[in-house]
Design a protein that fits this description.
- The protein is built from nine helices and ten strands.
- By secondary structure, it is an alpha+beta fold.
- The longest helix is centred in the middle third of the chain and has 17 residues.
Amino acid sequence: MIEVTPCRSRRDLVLFEEAPIRIHASDPHIVPPYPGSVVKFFRADSSFRLRHGELFPFLARQGKRVVGRIAAILNRTHNRLHQESTGFFGFFDFVDDRSVADALVAAATCKLRDLGMSTMRGPYNPTVNDECGLLVEGFEERPFIMMPYNPPYYVQQYAEMDFLPRLDLYAFHIDRHCLIPPTVERIVKRVRERSGVTLRPIDVNRLEEELHTIKDLYNATLERNWGFVPISDEDALDSAKELRPIVRPEMLLLAEKECGPVGFSLC
């Protein structure tokens, strides 16, 4: 028998965070989350809950064994910007058992319907600015930062539950050992000389300030993208706190002209 219950305690949230590792323990491509990196979204003082909406996590159990998880997500910021009544789901993981997936989706659907939502979209963990999407190709690759991963059987389960694709997302891989063709190097050099664009690594001693600049660039360049939700000043500050222990200057580059910052890259 499958039992789906809301997470009511800190222990439940830890089980929620660890669920993919327990469920897919034999899958070498699963990357364990940094401890606390999932639980943080569900705290009462989380950036998302304070500024954007609510999250409702559920666990599926068979006896004492955790066999799945899902979160129903209310994103008021998205619905206000896009004039929608869309509910979201995310953190959706399950054993290869249709009845488990069905029970979890039913719990999320019921919660979102009670909140007045007319459509359910996902997966988002928990927003478009975080991990999102269903992996449908490239299962032999381990995910990089901010990229989702799921086993191949998820694709069939989603289809059988009548989820319809809304948008295709792509990830491109470039081998750092591959040489850039001379023609491309010449073009890049010419463009940089003509445009006056310079590149520099971020200053980690001014990380909060630098991330506010990146936040402004991100919002300005992506505001016309499908499903866009802007990053707030507070979101940028939270990111600075999380990145400070691990960030290296060469991972974040800023492009600048005389007029100021005009672009950035994260690698």
